[in-house]
Amino acid sequence: MVHDKGALNHHRCHLTRWAASLGLCLCVSIFPAPGALATTLRWQMGAGNIVTFRTGAETAPLYRALQWVGARLGRMDSYGWRNLQRVPTPNDFDAAMMEAHDNGITPIFLLEYEGSYQALDPPQPIGSYDDWFRAGAEYARRFRPNGEWGREHGIKDFGATIFSMTNEPDVQNTIPKREYHDALEGFADGIHSVDPVLKVVPAGFAACNIDGDATLRGYGPAITDLLESRKLDGIDLHTYYNDRWFPLTEGRKFSAQSCFDRIKAALGLKRDIKFYTTEFNVSRSGDWSDETLTAKLFLTAIWDNLGVVGAEGRPATVFAFPWALADTPEVDGPAYAMAVSGDPWQPEERAKVLKRVLDLAGDMTIVSSDPYGAGTMHLKGANGDLFVWHNRLGWTNLTDGRWPIRLPEGARKVELWGWDGLRSIHDVSGDSFVFEALPAGETYMALVTR
Questions:
Q1: How many degrees, rounded to 5, is the angle at CA 294 between CA 291 and CA 295?
Q2: What is the gyration radius of the CA atoms in the chain, in angstroms?
Q3: How high is the mean pLDDT in each 10-residue block of the chain (450 residues)?
Q4: For a disulfide at 186, which of 36, 133, 159, 268, Cβ 3.0-4.6 Å?
Q5: 396 burial class (0-12, 13-18, 19+ CB within 10 angstroms)?
């Protein structure tokens, strides 16, 4: 299929806006347990970009947005993570790391290389295995939890535990596949030489979303061996739902889960891998230009990305970041802008939907997801459970708006929530409850309290 011009331009913007720059960097770290991801929903949600050469007033809107919705992660990028001689410059991240720490946001570093750098004067090829091994080792050594940066500042248990490099290499499709493989392998080996517990992920791929290419224009097969060997923990897929080219309203074939499955099949993977997404959104454009319609669709998009499962049906999502939480329409138009103003930051309807999800389930853990059958999910927390149902064409095998829920022990009340807030409250007892005749065409959430 042909991707719409606006969405394709969005993918390109990361690659061309700083074409003369040398790079950008992404890593995830978690406060609660060094080397291990927390599993509650707010620790699976974040946004970007936290640009390392900007601190203070320029980054305040994004931090305000992350805090307001209740997310704990942020994608941190640098346009200068190495110099012209391909020598890493990790101190480029120091000030931004401190600001992220002070704002309670765990950063995700992406060391980006973009294909057009090969045509700079002088040319900047992607570099060798050894170049990337050095970069991986130096960034891991400095920014892992309790690494050099943390020790210098007396900060414990805060740092990077997931690292990624490049971004959307399959958009321009100009980086030689063998060189890309060797750079990624060197990066992973360098990081694991410091700490084998740290995770490495290739930065976001876009081709499946753009035109249905499950090989990611050849970059997928190029790194299959690295996924099989566990040098890479999983893949990062960017998903932009669009009324013409990726319409979730036409069924689950236009879903993050569908692309994840098709890519794994195209690569012939024999082991299960993790799912990441540092960019997803519903394009507010065309027939979806209405802000309230886009917000309604966005609730489905959130749970689609959070509910991805692996080959054995177990939850596979590590994190899911919408793009672009802090942007206003003045930045790149209304398509992906989730703010109506930046100073002070004020939310657009999609940001309000994200906050609603995290208010309900931010401290819950995903227990199960059934994207192939009922189109439901189950999350569990200390004080209650949340159930999710995609009551959309092609997303569920349940019919007539009838949604049965198996109640947890001690359940006393069920609240039905939609994209726009609380719909109804029901007193319950026993082990089951059934919603009847729920209108089709949206995603529902049921909060069960004890």
A1: 85
A2: 21
A3: 39 34 40 55 94 88 97 89 92 94 93 89 93 97 97 96 94 96 98 97 96 98 98 98 97 98 98 97 98 98 98 96 96 96 95 98 98 98 96 98 96 98 97 97 97
A4: 133
A5: buried
How far is 170 from 274, CA to CA, in rounded Å? Answer: 20
The angle subtended at Cα 434 by Cα 368 and Cα 427, nearest 5°, is: 100
| Closest C-alpha among 154, 160, 148 to residue 198 | 160
252-277 pLDDT, tens digit each = 999 999 999 999 999 999 999 999 99
* Tokens representing residue 130 in the block: 């050894």
> What is the C-alpha separation between 348 and 13, in angstroms, rounded?
22
Same domain, 326 and 224: yes
At 11, list the tokens: 């993918």
Closest CA to 104 of 151, 58, 69, 139: 69
CATH of the domain at 397: 2.60.40
Q: How far apart are CA 385 and CA 448, in angstroms?
A: 5
Within this chain, do residues 130 and 216 fall inside the same structural domain, yes or no?
A: yes
The pTM is what?
Answer: 0.92
Residue 440 and residue 325 share a domain: no
| Spatial distance between the Cα atoms of 391 and 379, rounded to a whole number of angstroms | 18
Contact 208, 238 (CB under 8 A): no
Strand segments (E) across 156-292: 162-165, 199-202, 234-236, 239-241, 274-282
The DSSP letter of residue 118 is G
Amino acid, single-letter form, for residue 100: A
* Rounded Cα–Cα distance for residues 20 and 124 (Å): 10
Q: What is the pLDDT of residue 17?
A: 31
Determine, yes or no, domain membership for 367: no
d(CA 306, CA 276): 9
Strand boundaries in 89-223, DSSP class E:
106-111, 162-165, 199-202
| Residue carrying structure tokens 């919408």 | 322
| Count of positions (residues) in the chain | 450
Which pLDDT value is given to residue 38? 53
